Request: fold
Amino acid sequence: MLKIHHLGHSQSERIVWLCEELGVPYELEKYTRDAVTRLSPPELKALHPLGAAPLIEVDGVLLAESAAIVEFILARYGHGRLQYGLNHPEFASYLYWFHFANGNLQPVMGRSMIVGRCGLAPDDPVQTSVQVRLDKVLALIEERLTQNDYLAGSEFTAADIMSVFSLTTMRLFHPVDLKPYPSILAYLQRIGGRSAYQQAMAKGDPDLTPMLA
Ligand SMILES: N[C@@H](CCC(=O)N[C@@H](CS)C(=O)NCC(=O)O)C(=O)O
Reply:
């Protein structure tokens, strides 16, 4: 059976959620962040050189990187679900938004979190450039979700599964006010209405109220 190594309050919520959406049976091995450093505990670090979540194990293979894991699970268990194929008119959009999550959205949230902790002056050029990029990224998502119910288009796909962590749980680590982005907030409400999302969050992070507002 597929085993998910899930670190609480982390990007590995994506994998639990994907398995719930697809109805793929899985075993959940849960880990808690170190109370001081908020990094992985030693048991998770022992599994992989980076010690970061998510990790999955299946048929003796250990795989890291959430995008790789999502692609692996879709290829093996998806049977075409939650993705747009080559002949779909929104295939390029699907690829773009799938990769935007870890290529742009999550990195700028991480940079913004780190820069925010450096105590720089509000007009420091580094601080300003990161803020400008974050604002642009959120504005781009807002525009997309004003025109479409989901990131790849009219249907919910794995591009959404890749992106939602950065707009929700990531705000535990870096609070970002989403009030200026009503379409993102409406989208998060749609996501929160999905029973697979509710199941995943209840199983993986029962101590956390999903940050959908
Ligand atoms: N790009 C990787 C990022 C993995 C990552 O950095 N995970 C974080 C949780 S959100 C982690 O495990 N942090 C704890 C640590 O590095 O010790 C992915 O998408 O899987």
